[in-house]
Specification:
There is one protein chain. This protein is of the alpha/beta class. It has a single domain, classed as NAD(P)-binding Rossmann-like Domain (Rossmann fold). The chain has nine helices and eight strands. Strands 3-2-1-4-5-6-7-8 form an eight-stranded mixed sheet, sandwiched between helices. The chain binds NADP nicotinamide-adenine-dinucleotide phosphate.
Length: 269
């Protein structure tokens, strides 16, 4: 059976470059995006370029976790299994940073959405499934008050805290032979996507550097035993994440808080 790969945030930047590369390998690709128009355009362009590729699309705005849950339900109804999930969608800055449920948008899109999506896609995972979580060199200790949406953070702080939270969840998930392999990957710093160009005013590096490491994390043998690890593509090596992600008690506490907040929002039991 052909491998099925879901890439979130596949409508731009590193996610799109990864999708373009994987479409050429004859895999079945599911592209996620938040804009129906952008998703249609990207899907059509990829099908044009790779006529033999099986390319499907799914839409959800990750700023609204009810849309994330609905997306997972749609996918569970559509396919028997998922071989690779690349949790790539991410945001640095937004005009309004508080969601309608009172949470910080950066935590919602960068941490809660991939956490919830992964939980809710669990019935599709096999022992060989791989989950690749997009981390960053920007990682800062998570303030529980900020995670609850009780205090406002600067763009840089919210982004760095949301990326460490995602990394801590990855590191907190035990490596088990019967569980999917989940790894956190910093794709490389200041790669020239719209996130970098719009927020830092620089052209940035080659996005292909990020697409290359995501394809390897998804498919290559070098990531077969990467469960719970952090790959730092700035160093081109596995390496230590922020100290908090190396503290099992802190990681477990963070995951408990994520669950509490999702339960308060009636998104999990
Ligand atoms: N570029 C770097 O140097 C760098 C470094 C470290 C980590 N990263 C991480 O790499 C990932 C990809 O980033 P990028 O640099 O390629 O940025 P990008 O070009 O801005 O792409 C981000 C993707 O996420 C999607 N997205 C944003 N907000 C969303 C929402 N509310 N709901 C659903 N999808 C949403 C975007 O959709 P639209 O197309 O609709 O905007 C786009 O497809 C992110 O997780 C980022 O944090 C990037």
């Amino acid at each position: 059976m052909t491998d099925t790969i879901l890439i979130t945030g596949a409508t731009d930047g590193i996610g799109l470059a990864t999708a373009e590369r994987l479409a050429q390998s004859g895999l079945r690709l599911i592209l996620h995006g938040r804009s129906a128009a952008k998703l249609d355009q990207v899907g059509a362009a990829l099908r044009d370029r790779c006529p033999t590729a099986d390319i499907q699309t799914v839409r959800a705005d990750f700023a609204d976790l009810t849309e994330v849950a609905a997306m997972a339900e749609t996918l569970r109804g559509k396919m028997p299994r998922l071989d690779v999930l690349i949790n790539n969608a991410g945001v640095y800055r937004a005009p309004i940073t508080e969601t309608r449920h009172g949470l910080d948008l950066r935590f919602v899109v960068n941490t809660f959405a991939p956490y919830l999506l992964t939980q809710q896609l669990r019935p599709l995972f096999t022992t060989t499934t791989r989950i690749v979580n997009l981390s960053s060199a920007a990682q800062a200790s998570v303030d529980p008050a900020a995670l609850h949406g009780h205090i406002k953070l600067s763009d840089g702080s919210a982004y760095a805290q949301s990326k460490l939270a995602l990394t801590m969840w990855t590191c907190a998930t035990p490596a088990e032979p019967t569980a999917p392999m989940m790894v956190a990957v910093n794709p490389g710093s200041m790669l020239g996507s719209k996130m970098v160009q719009d927020n830092f005013g620089v052209a940035g590096g080659d996005i292909a550097i990020g697409a290359d490491i995501l394809c390897r994390a998804a498919l290559s043998d070098e990531f077969a035993d990467a469960a719970g690890k952090y790959y730092d593509n700035d160093r081109r090596a596995f390496g230590p994440p922020h100290a908090d992600a190396r503290d099992p008690a802190k990681c477990r506490a963070l995951v408990t808080t994520l669950d509490q907040i999702l339960a308060e929002q009636h998104l999990i039991e």
